[in-house]
Design a protein that fits this description.
- The chain is about 35% helix and about 25% strand.
- Strand 10 and strand 11 form a beta hairpin.
- The protein binds N,N-dimethyl-L-histidine.
- This is Dimethylhistidine N-methyltransferase.
Amino acid sequence: MLKREIEDGEQSLADPAFRADVLAGLERRPRAIPARWFYDRRGSELFEAITDLPEYYPTRTERSILETACPEVAEIAGAGRAVVEFGSGSSTKTPILLSAVAPSVYVPIDISGDFLRESSRVLAAQFPELLVLPFEADFMRPLALPKTIEDTPKLGFFPGSTIGNMIPLMAVDLLKAMRASLGIGAMLLIGMDRIKDPAVLVPAYDDAQGVTAAFNMNLLERINRELDADVPIEAFRHKAVWNDDRARIEMHLEAQRDAAFTIEGRPFDIAAGETIHTENSHKYGSRDARILLRSGGWTPIREWTDPAGLFSLYLAEA
Ligand code: AVI
């Protein structure tokens, strides 16, 4: 459909950054495409489905930790803070924090404006006393938050172990940017998935129903949908591996046979067994997490975990 529109002389609707990342990522060795491109509409729906899978423990585990931790967070952080959530998406965890902390202002930050406006509407209806100030921005860089909350101390919220999708160097840069954005006297509540038995980790990223496989494969489908491309989808399979050296789950798309295709007129040849690296999900033990936080300019002051020690929530101060 899209290709037809392009052939009919319409401008391409594809994001130029997507095109550039796909072409550069497939030309380099090892081949890799950044995980941020998973999240088109279909990818976001599949991710929501992942969070309900029996094998995918992080979402429900973090939610249960938040139920216990948030009243304590409210006590430590004190009254009168503005809550600033990074990458708010359609988070179901936010109401747990907002109910406990009862802030006067909530600033959800997300790069996707549509998603942001929708989830802001839902939250504003749920918390009628709360001033919701949605902020459409890329939070990887320091941000100038709304002037109205300039003098209000902030409580940053970054759940979901999304920090784990960055290599440690990037994670440290992000933590520094958050510190700069949140300003003097800020606190940060952040979720991180812990290192555990690969027999638990791998199925969480390669579930029996194949939802994570569909999430990974959707990237190839998106390339065919949005770019002028003919990637033979059936030639690839989803692969999730635990990289113990780097303490991370890696997702790849592995060619099952030699495959030749073109994207935007450029030819690609991928040999059987070669992979396209699509995601890293780093896991952090308690000490690793504390070192990471300190490297990013934050002093950890409290850690909560679940009884099985699957996931941790950290409260840190600037
Ligand atoms: C968004 N992020 C924290 C998820 C994770 O667990 O790394 C993304 C994901 N990829 C496959 N399953 C879930």
